[in-house]
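debug: dumping io for the single-chain case to check the tokenizer round-trip. Nothing else runs in this session.
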Amino acid sequence: MGNRLLTAAVAVLILVDVGLFAAVLLRHDDASSRLSHRASTAAVPDRSPSAGSTGDLPVSTQHHTAIVLSRKAYVARPFEGVRVAGAWKAPRPVARRAVRVEVQHGASWSRFPLPAVTDATGRFTAFVNLGARGRYRLRVLGVGGAPVSDPVTVTVR
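debug: decoded output
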């Protein structure tokens, strides 16, 4: 009985957490849209990269793009949301680009299900939850696979 109750409680917490994450993501996306509309009179093209591509950046400028995170380390409690903020630096604006957070498991990386979207200046905020105590390595990358940020550490205590 106790295990069933604990399992049900964890499932409810996960569902509530996913719902809150989606609400924050939608609110962030809506605010970014209003900001980019007010900040510029020119239309910002939607440059969603396809899988395996680097978007519409020419090959000669691809090495000048980078995803830079605002912090190198985070501390959280189990199931507490971690706010991972950063910017997609490039020679020209990278508004409305999707980025994904990945967590390292041994030699491989697993991605979190929901992407974040850059605003008119290339900034983004992603939220992740890690349930079990321990140290995790995270990185952020463009949905097409490039660029990739340097890894950061999240310690769940």
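debug: round-trip ok. The two ends are 27 Å apart (CA to CA).
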